[in-house]
Amino acid sequence: MVSISTSAPGKLFLLGEYAVLDGAPALLAAVDRRARVTISDSESGSWQVSAPNLGIVNLALGGDGGLPSGLDAAGRSKLRVFDAVREAVLARAPRPARPLAITMDSGALSRGGHKLGLGSSAAVAVALTAALATALDLDLDREALFRLAEQAHRRAQGGVGSGGDVAASVYGGLIRYSRGAVPVPLRWPEELSVLAVVTGEGALTTRLVGRVADYAAEDPARYRADIARLAGLAERAEASLADPDAFLRLAGDYFSALTVLDTHARAGIVTERHHELHAVAQRVGGVFKTSGAGGGDVGLAFSHSGEPAERLAAALAGAGAAVVPLGFFAAGVHGGSRS
Predict the structure, then answer these.
(1) What is the chain's mean pLDDT, rounded?
(2) Which residues are catalytic, by number?
(3) What is the CATH number of domain 4-186+328-338?
């Protein structure tokens, strides 16, 4: 083996966030910011890992690539996805692993050092699973790759999350995703435009989801009512793609239902800035909503294509909101061949 290179896209939840955790479907789009992994035989004779955007360069690892015993808590946290994927792939590899040098880079999924909520850890998990599987002659079809990467990512995240971000990174494009089901590819209507908008400096997904879980334990009846409201809207998402006006109404209704959930959970999903941008979009015929966990992560602005989209972009710029230059519906995980 000379070198193996893989890449996997980030993602954005268009509709269905939080409800997807309770079995409702979600719409996700892969975006053209990609995590990249390169693997080669180690020239030093021992396992090494580098993650330049995390400040890790040529870290010497233990046997079979295990994290060194002297690594501090911060270093272990940065490499928790790496370690979970390494362990999952090695447990299934058909032959013993030789020492490898591994480089991971997810810097493209952040902005000015702040995360955007594009699913960088999931994209790394997918790209690394694909690269390690190739290096160790583990043959995985797309569904098997998803299952293995999702299992490892869930373990690294402490069991939190829906798996939708992993699915988007594997399958790419626009998908309908439900937990436990194979993702369904969909087509985005040309009549609709979507923009990604910076809303803060990033949010910790596990913290926000954890606060909602606390609310579910404290007031299960009201939580179930809030999630049922979101789930009912999420069930209409796929059909609404056939009618741009219906989709825009649905996106607005979903933001309102998320606001109710957040008010009850006191989680910080919907911020004052989100409400400001929602009002800005509404004044020009568009819709703004949070995406994914919410908080300071990137939000979404929807409108009809053409002149309405230009008007919406101008209104957002006038409100001081930066639009992130993203290509939506990008290809899924790529690479894995030896070069």
Answers:
(1) 94
(2) 165
(3) 3.30.230.10
